[in-house]
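The aim of this short unit is practical: by the end, you should be able to scan a pair of folded records and say something sensible about each. We start with the first protein, listed as its amino acid sequence and then its structure tokens.
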Amino acid sequence: MKLYRLLCSALCLLMLITLPAGAATAKPADPRTMTFQPLTFSIPKTERVALPNGMVVYLLEDHELPLVNITAYLNTGSIYEPSDKVGLAGLTGAVMRSGGTKAMTPEQLDQELEFMASSIESSIGSDLGNVSLSCLKKNLDRTLQLFAQVMIEPAFREERVTLAKNRTIEALRRQNDDPKGIADRELGKAVYHGHPLGRVPTIATVNAINRGDMVAFHQQYFHPNNVILAVAGDFNRQELLDQLTKAFNGWQPKKIDLPKVAAPDSTLRPAVLHAQKEVSQSVIRMGHIGIDKNNPDLYAIRVMDYILGGGFTSRLTLEIRTNQGLAYNVDSRFDVGRRFLGTFIAETETKSGTTGKAITLMRDIIASMTKGPVSDQELQLDKESIINSFIFGFTRTSDVVNQRARLEYYGYPADYLDRYRDNIAKVSKDDILRVARKYLHPEALILMVVGDEKLFDKPLASFGPVTEIRLENGK
């Protein structure tokens, strides 16, 4: 032990001797006054190639690991399904993969993919269809062949159609078990009232769907000139293009007539909605129609939204979570619509006995954004947070190439990402106050509450006439 102490003392003495003069007594740096060079980051470039059949391909090589990822973006979605068969798009997307292909049964497809440690997945959302592939480099050729089969020749076997429908119906029967799911669903229906974006499947609409409907839906939209591929990983450019050409050989382009979908009604309709559920915690959602990606005030709205409810330093979080201790999570966001108007939503969960207090605070904080300019500190901190976090959207090669594919899919300007940080940096306090007054409507919020009204600290009627939502599972 003595020897150890002597060695330590000698080491400390040596450090003092070798330090520059005055360094031993220098004060530690104050993190509040430290300055750094501006963060610089250039978005990696991708290559865009159009195949002879009209399929667009974005490429970005990455040889760090022997893996390849491919995602297909198809112009389809539930917005195009018939109103009496809501759920058709989602079921079609699921059974494309689970139902096997014309050349392989579902069991054969599963076994071969598992043997190669490859995966193929498919899905269809509201305005986008996806088919994705992930595999080892050595198995790319065969996995790509199976990927093409799933896209071009899904079998939609009857037993798998029945299984998918039964699973969906069972999920509908249980959908009201989750209070958050109820609140999100009912607010969406209210904001998009009468529009396909506000429709949700029911047991009746799912029962109305048959195999023929899925086959027809697939045949209507799945054509090479309706596809954008994003490819990232360990591949050789020319070899990959040859493999793609071979895998999709014979798949011919076709004129696609997308059904006309009207724009959502932007009329503001304030409402108070309540779903009675005997739980100890209330789920609170409030919101109204928002903006789309082409809005000229997009960047000012981004910064305003972040100050209001976008992070741990946001006004909603500081007051409702930190100062009042009413909730663990509280936030707000403008979900910017890519093809239609999006939504503005504020949300939280709180114990039943503070439901009214939380609603009042949320409304007041939203309204405060329209009453005066934000502080210099809020503006600087939140702009820097948005700008500095931008890099995390490009941490993987697959993130970069998929970003580029989505930009083209949704019709963004080619330089959107390159100009994003500069456009955020230009936002001023005047801009934020102007857009808050223009796009926030605290007096016209649709309020949705799921909870036990017997335990509320104040009646919901104090916020306006209440409409009760009857929770009937799946009907």
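Turning to the second protein, read its sequence before its tokens, just as you did above.
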Amino acid sequence: MSATTKRFGVIVIILLLVVSVSACGGSKGPDIKISNPWARPSPKMATSGAAYMIIENKGKEDDALIGAESDVSNNTEIHEMVVDENSVMHMKPVEGQRLTIPARGKVELKPGGYHIMLINLKHQLQEGEIVHLTLKFEKSGEMKVDAPVKMLK
């Protein structure tokens, strides 16, 4: 084998390594961060509650919140507030229980918008308590979140 052929072979191998390394590190999937989680205290005799937070996706690929569980309720769903054709605001489950968190974007779960609905509460939520949530993401898997119960200020 000639020196030129060997050099060419080494160059090809180096180029293949560079392409492989950049392919592995160049495509960053979802990178979900949760901030400002909180839940509202329940009024007396309330059978449901709500939790809020900001879900940010710092990655280069969309993800979706596809479910949630809580230690304080028998059922936990993703809900949203909508205005119907009569200009009346009401709450409804998010279609398909799938809330897209766009790449390099964020979705704020807040009163009057998207929220985690805590259905059939096991007890009344009181200020100072912590609600333990498990959020389920399509690509990022499960994330544990502790939401302190507090009054909106």
